[in-house]
Design brief:
The complex is a heterodimer. By secondary structure, chain A is α+β, with helices and mostly antiparallel strands. Chain A contains 7 helices and 10 strands. Classes of the chains: A alpha+beta, B alpha+beta.
């Protein structure tokens, strides 16, 4: 190949060898392809197109699955030897620390929103209420799974006790923990809200919840992924729409990180 | 020399015979290298839709894997349990652990392009870490894959493509025949002339493997990872031995797709990329000249 100087010309100098050209072309091509993918990924149109998949999945799963189907329950022999914690591991606020220092004796769950009788339920009352115990698998969105035993009060019982309005569409869980100053919250629809395995758990593996696992109360919604299992639940609110709640997408991860509201897959 | 012969022919043969062109091809003179209409529209359409969805699934899947780059067998599996595969890093050294063995993979896996992820930015969608975005891509294109594969499967059965072109012929089912085909492939001698109208046995096995093993198993193991589908269809997790096992099998299927793509592209390049691409884009394919005829003409 000739290597004569092309200074002064607008055209680039020929590459010293065809091999280098080809490699550069390949690398350049791969780079362009990636830049293309990332550009598509950043475009609002693409985002809304891709979210069609999410909506289809949600609709299809509700269509083909029995809405009352129970999540698989396991035997004690199948439980994870160590159940790792997920999400925030300690709210660490002054108020929470004070509650924890007193073994949550002063803690109370607020139940409000579209209900006829707003409630405040103490931990003692929670412990005395009818409960369900289940050994289920926790599936983190990241890909790991852990099996543990959860025991708590069915959410449906609490919603009925509070006289929830028939117009309420979602249950919102407001939590004591926050990430970077943004409070954690989650929400589910009434299909999961009244599902028999949806419980507000006070116990895990036979003992009261530890701080790391969401003491004194966490949600178990067994047919969805780990980030829906809100920890440190302080307040349960029945609403007709998620629009007015924080970012409007129904949860911390949904508002701030683009995760799917329906975490059934 | 094999290489010289291959270089001389510059093309190869992978194909299926179409009933419509079988007669026309039969009349053509082998030396004239007839252009035949070989690949029907549904096959071409599915090939490209499937290629796109498989690439997006692989690339977004690798980003999803980056969120927890460990695989397990059994009904549970998390950080404190025992993985059979780990792709991770210590400092700036990447490594892959399989069973008790560890392989240094810095620059490729575990740590590459300056970032500590199992799969490097070059091969993931998106290129910077985002489990949420990768999941949006993965589950959108999962529908493309599922729907197009279902339609194509129905087409295969109804049109006879499966029975006529993909199924191994009785004479191809013997080990001697397969061994002969393996040896021919190893020598890079692909069928020519009339023999190039049909898929060769190894090619059929590869395509059947994708259609009847990889695609169904990757879809079923993908569904097994869904907690909602798990509740509705408990047999899914039982079938694969638990959700972590299904995740492992899902990953192995992905590796199977990657291997298929490498071999498939290599075969296209060796067989004559222009002719092969024309065939899978327009349907028209030039039958490679008979080896004997070519050698006679030299």
């Amino acid at each position: 190949m000739n290597k004569q100087s092309t200074s002064g010309l607008i055209m680039p100098a020929p590459a010293p060898s065809s091999l280098v050209t080809r490699r550069n072309a390949l690398l350049g091509g791969a780079g362009l392809l990636l830049a293309g993918c990332d550009q598509i990924n950043a475009s609002p149109t693409a985002k809304s197109l891709l979210s069609l998949g999410e909506k289809t999945t949600h609709g299809a799963q509700r269509l083909v699955t029995d809405r009352n189907a129970l999540a698989q329950e396991f035997s004690r022999a199948e439980m994870s030897p160590v159940f790792r914690q997920n999400g925030n591991q300690n709210p660490g606020t002054a108020e929470y620390n004070a509650l924890a220092a007193n073994n949550f004796a002063d803690w109370g769950l607020t139940v409000d929103g579209m209900v006829a009788h707003p409630l405040r339920i103490s931990l003692t009352q929670m412990m005395a209420a009818p409960r369900r115990t289940q050994i289920t698998r926790h599936d983190c969105v990241e890909g790991w799974s852990a099996i543990g035993e959860w025991s708590g009060v069915p959410l449906g019982l609490i919603l009925k006790r509070a006289g929830m309005s028939g117009n309420a569409k979602y249950v919102v869980f407001h939590c004591a923990d926050s990430t970077g100053g943004i409070p954690y919250y989650e929400s589910i629809d009434m299909i999961d809200g009244f599902h028999p395995q949806t419980i507000l758990a006070t116990h895990m593996n036979g003992a009261p919840l530890t701080v790391g696992h969401g003491a004194p109360l966490r949600l178990r919604v067994e047919r969805q992924l780990g980030y829906k299992q809100a920890k440190y639940v302080m307040r349960v609110e029945a609403v007709a729409s998620l629009d007015g709640i924080h970012g409007g997408k129904g949860g911390y991860w949904e508002d701030h990180r683009g995760y799917q509201w329906f975490a059934g897959i | 020399m094999t290489c010289a012969r291959l270089g001389g022919s510059g093309n190869m043969a992978t194909q299926f015979a179409d009933n419509e062109v079988a007669g026309a091809g039969g009349q053509a003179d082998a030396d004239a290298s007839p252009l035949i209409y070989r690949t029907k529209l549904p096959v071409r359409l599915w090939h490209w839709i499937n290629a796109l969805s498989i690439f997006v699934m692989l690339m977004s899947g690798m980003m999803i894997f980056n969120a927890h780059p460990r695989l397990y067998w059994g009904v549970y599996g998390a950080n404190l349990d025992h993985p059979w595969l780990v792709i991770s890093h210590r400092g700036t050294s990447g490594f892959v652990q399989i069973g008790g063995f560890e392989i240094a993979t810095t620059g490729f896996l575990g740590y590459a392009q300056g970032v500590p992820y199992a799969f490097p930015p070059l091969v993931t969608i998106p290129s910077t870490y985002s489990l949420a975005d990768a999941r949006q891509w993965h589950f959108a294109f999962a529908w493309v894959l599922l729907i197009s594969a279902t339609l194509f499967m129905a087409y295969n059965i109804v049109s006879g493509h499966l029975r006529r072109d993909l199924a191994l012929k009785p004479e191809e089912r013997s080990l001697t025949h397969l061994w002969h085909d393996i040896k021919e492939h190893a020598r890079l001698r692909f069928p020519t002339g009339e023999a190039a109208r049909a898929y060769n046995p190894l090619q059929k096995i590869a395509y059947l493997g994708v259609l009847f093993v990889l695609i169904p198993v990757v879809i079923l193991t993908g569904c097994t990872m869904s907690p909602t589908l798990n509740a509705a269809f408990p047999w899914l997790a039982e079938l694969f031995g638990g959700r972590p096992s299904a995740r492992s099998i899902h990953f192995l299927c992905a590796a199977g797709f990657a291997l298929f793509i490498v071999v498939h592209l290599l075969a296209v390049v060796l067989a004559g990329p222009f002719n092969e691409l024309r065939s899978i884009i327009t349907g028209w394919y030039r039958l490679p000249q008979e080896r004997l005829a070519k050698e006679r003409s030299k």
